[in-house]
């Protein structure tokens, strides 16, 4: 598989100013991140708030300029493209945001919102615009008759479907979803997760899913990168990382997912400030296994399919087993099978 | 077991655009000392207004019906002033966003001390000393120093610990925690929830945990009430509810949460959206979205009926084993 997207040594710092506007340090949002996403692959980027995952998403699309490092998209270094070349490239990469209430223009009907990228990138002749919008809306499970309505007439789940239709309009190769289902109620979230899985499969999309929700990531990602304080601490096939985590932080994160009643006490303390990240391994201040070396030497991510940035990765005790209290039994699975519709569900009228 | 709170037939109505809006329609439950009842449901199901009704924090335009008894005392019969005196003393509440419930102009210690002065009559010095002790008990490191800091100087997790210290300072009989960890990161959430469990065990406080997160319920609740569109759909001991739900909504909700299930397997998705309470369906409110609904479900609302000892479900088709056998 060839890489569609390749990032090398990305660094982004945001200056912090004091009350008088003087420079008072910088937030080390992303600090030396390299990753690649193969054509047709789904990469999940997980981590808690402030770990730099959203900044990384914007760097990958070159929506913000890195302080160091490169991003290659189908071979082109995005950071070196001219403004017009970059604009043309935008057609191939789209972003879906968390909040569908903020990402749609309230003064545009659904049809206008979805048609805008069609027109901008000259995807179809004007005469075919309406048909294409109808096609895109049914693709995301919305009735085409709803095209003349306004965003405020729709629920959160329906708005997120509209945002997805808009993202699909330019026929992108890559979509980055920044917490695309986090603002939705669980039953609606399931509808949108199912929709995204269908689209990824049917359209062969390359997808980067940025999320704090390990359940959602486990459900759709092929590969997972775990971030902590601006760095990737573990990366590998989703099944390996989420079922046999090697980094103490990944373990702690998984143990903290509610519904698994981890026996071990939760890790202590808060995430340190990204303005003054700790030296050595950034997790050492909260790590139950940390030794002297962790306080001074920064561990490298290493090589191979399943990579981990931890000095002790090979000598740690096996992670605690995690009972799944939500799994239920055969009876529950049978009950739930009645809720599984074969394809994208039609949107209910607003 | 002592029943601390008993709510029966709770109704809540608002006037909206000249029409009546029934937000809660006959909600009943009880909470025992030292136990946690989780009220779980999606946005708009009525879980938060239920807790506000119990606390007496609803606006004057709300009309509350039914009975709310705290330790045998009927709260709906009390004056506003009498109910105010209960809050922070016999009953306390913590909210989702600690930043908006803490006063930015007072230090953490002063805010915890205020509750102690008002409800326990301690003088300033004694109250502050007790406040520091409480902050230490909710495991705020270096509590004496933190007590002198303002909310903006504390992290989100730390602020929620201050809220818990404030809520528990006067040893309330009932603590309502409304989405107490929804704004927090998952590792901090785990810390706060296990702290709440520990405090409950130590003090014997009855806890109502309002949440949308079934995982949180599975780990931290003894009893669960599932709410849908202003009514209780199902109620049971937590283990029973997760192992063998008897309401289709509960089963669907459990399947909708992405968990350990196989990758790529479709999640159970509950078709459609929650009903508009201005114009609720005449029968079971879940019927329009229910794969098991029969004609009767659309015509008549099902009562909350016992399907097993301690397990109630508002479903005409419960017990659902019969439905599965027929399928």
TrEMBL record, chain A:
The keyword Nucleotide-binding applies. It comes from the Bacteria. InterPro entries: AAA+_ATPase, ABC_transp_ATP-bind, ABC_transporter-like_ATP-bd, ABC_transporter-like_CS, Oligopep_ABC_C, P-loop_NTPase. Pfam families: ABC_tran (PF00005), oligo_HPY (PF08352). One of its GO terms (molecular function) is ATP hydrolysis activity. It is found in: Cell inner membrane. GO terms for cellular component: plasma membrane. Its main location: membrane. Keywords: ATP-binding, Nucleotide-binding, Transport. Residues 5-254 form the ABC transporter domain. The keyword Nucleotide-binding applies. SUPFAM superfamilies: P-loop containing nucleoside triphosphate hydrolases. It is a peripheral membrane protein. GO terms for biological process: peptide transport; transmembrane transport. NCBIfam families: oligo_HPY (TIGR01727). Belongs to the ABC transporter superfamily. This is ATP-binding cassette domain-containing protein.
Automatic annotation (TrEMBL), chain B:
InterPro entries: AAA+_ATPase, ABC_Ni/Peptide_Import, ABC_transporter-like_ATP-bd, ABC_transporter-like_CS, Oligopep_ABC_C, P-loop_NTPase. Residues 5-254 form the ABC transporter domain. Its main location: membrane. PROSITE patterns: ABC_TRANSPORTER_1, ABC_TRANSPORTER_2. One of its GO terms (biological process) is transmembrane transport. Coiled coil: none annotated. It is found in: Cell inner membrane. Keywords: ATP-binding, Cell membrane, Membrane, Nucleotide-binding, Transport. CDD domains: ABC_NikE_OppD_transporters (cd03257). It holds the Pfam family ABC_tran. It is a peripheral membrane protein. GO terms for molecular function: ATP binding; ATP hydrolysis activity. The keyword Oxidoreductase does not apply. GO terms for cellular component: plasma membrane. PANTHER family: DIPEPTIDE TRANSPORT ATP-BINDING PROTEIN DPPD, OLIGOPEPTIDE TRANSPORT ATP-BINDING PROTEIN APPD. Belongs to the ABC transporter superfamily. This is ABC transporter ATP-binding protein.
